[in-house]
Amino acid sequence: MRRSVLIVAGDRSGDRHAARLATALKTLTPDLEVAALGGRELEGVADRFLGSLIDLGVFGFWRPLTRFPALVQMMRSVIDPFLHSHRPDVVIPVDYYGFNIHVAEHAHRCGIPVVYYISPQVWASRPGRIKRLAQVVRRMLVIFPFEEPLYRRHGVEVSFVGHPLLDLLPEPLSPPTESTPPLLGLLPGSRTSEIRRHLPVLLKAAAQLKRRLGDLTVQVFYESSYECRRRLTAALTCSGTATLENALLGVPMVVMYRLSWFNYLITRALIQSPFIAMPNVLANRPLVPELIQRRATATALADTVYPLLTDLGYREAVRKELLTLRKLLGAQGASHRAAQQVLEVIA
Questions:
Q1: Domain extent for 280
Q2: Residue 198 in contact with residue 242, Cβ under 8 Å?
Q3: Cα 225 vs. chain centroid, distance in angstroms?
Q4: Which terminus of the chain is more solvent-facing, meaning fewer CB atoms within 10 Å of its CB: N or C?
Q5: Residues 284-342 pLDDT 10s
Q6: What is the number of other CB atoms lying within 10 angstroms of the CB of residue 27?
Q7: 228 and 304 part of one domain
Q8: Do 236 and 202 touch, CB atoms closer than 8 A?
Q9: Percent helix, strand and coil across the chain, each rounded to 5?
């Protein structure tokens, strides 16, 4: 009988890493059938694509409430019948706790083992989620080293497989190229709501810097564009995966983020970590400045990034600190190691 897995990813980053996991699984076991609910990248590698969860665009605190009927319909019309009729050997939720915890719980009730790939950020907020995950997850595959002891303390079988970004990012330039004029990257985020909130203030900050420096090249990035980004002198970037990408590329940065006041007040009440930028979380100290909400003004952003654009010694010191984070994230091959763990559970 042909073995099969179901992979569920709900955001673009998860979709990308899930697709690489699916590819690794099929490389190791060519006759394995991969069913998936996710986005375009998973659709491109899955044998059976069940639908696009990413197109629902459910993020933040308010948006999920407005899309709740669509999420319930997705569970009832796609996940539930598939689990009952096809009974995959393993269900693999990828991050995206709000939807995937229900997938995991339903799979567990059906007697299907759950291997959760890429932990939700339970260490940053709502640690009680770990107890709920512990009840249904057969094995947790984490991508940050500090997550492994956290789950182990709660009795969860867990493995640190390394970070999949190490397989996607090019090596940082060594020695770094010095742009004349300096090259500033603006990364407002990839979601429409993020771009709408962040891009205007980032452009105003860049305009102020152009007036102060006279000669400055500014480039806006919405997608990965790693080859171009590793040549940046510095970056103004919204919080998210881009901060870790910049760090691993050796790009000094200032991190900013703005939320609606409704989401901000809830987030402030829930977040337990003293930092929001992943480089700072990994280092457990402020490697890069964070300007959040009302502090994220154009003038404050311009003033904070100015020394990175003008002081070579300071910039190089920050760059070296950021590149030390690579050593914390394991070796290349995270997707392959995660696939081996999944196959081990199937066996």
A1: 183-328
A2: no
A3: 16
A4: N
A5: 999 999 999 889 999 999 999 999 999 999 999 999 999 999 999 999 999 999 999 99
A6: 12
A7: yes
A8: yes
A9: 50, 15, 30
* Residue 170, domain member (yes or no): no
Q: Are 98 and 74 in contact (CB under 8 A)?
A: no
- Residue 48 pairs in a beta bridge with 35
Q: Rounded to an integer, what distance in angstroms lies between the CA atom of residue 127 and that of residue 119? A: 12
CA separation for the pair 123, 121 (Å, rounded): 5
Contact 246, 256 (CB under 8 A): no
Q: What are phi and psi for residue 325, nearest 5 degrees?
A: -70, -25
Residue among 81, 93, 80 at smallest CA distance from 18: 93
Token readout for 39 is 């986005």
What integer pLDDT is reported at residue 266 of this predicted model? 58
- Cα angle 119-137-103, degrees, rounded to a multiple of 5: 80
Maximum CA extent, the chain: 68
Q: Is residue 276 part of a domain?
A: yes
Q: Measured between alpha carbons, how far is residue 278 from residues 6, 44, 92, 287 in Å?
A: 29, 29, 24, 10
For residues 133-161, average pLDDT: 95
Residues 92, 6 contacting (CB under 8 angstroms) = yes
In a domain, 171, yes or no: no
Q: Which amino acid appears at position 41 of this protein? A: E
Strands 90-94, 4-9: parallel, antiparallel or unpaired by DSSP? parallel
- The DSSP call for residue 244 is H
In Å, what is the CA distance from 115 to each residue of 95, 264, 313? 11, 32, 46
Write the CA distances from 144 to 181, 236, 323, 326, integer angstroms.
Answer: 36, 24, 16, 11
Nearest alpha-carbon partner for 189 in 179, 202, 176: 202
What total number of domains does the chain contain?
2
In a domain, 175, yes or no: no
For the record, the structure tokens of 31 come out as 């006759």
Query: In what side-by-side order are the strands of the sheet with 253-257?
Result: 217-220, 183-187, 234-238, 253-257, 290-292
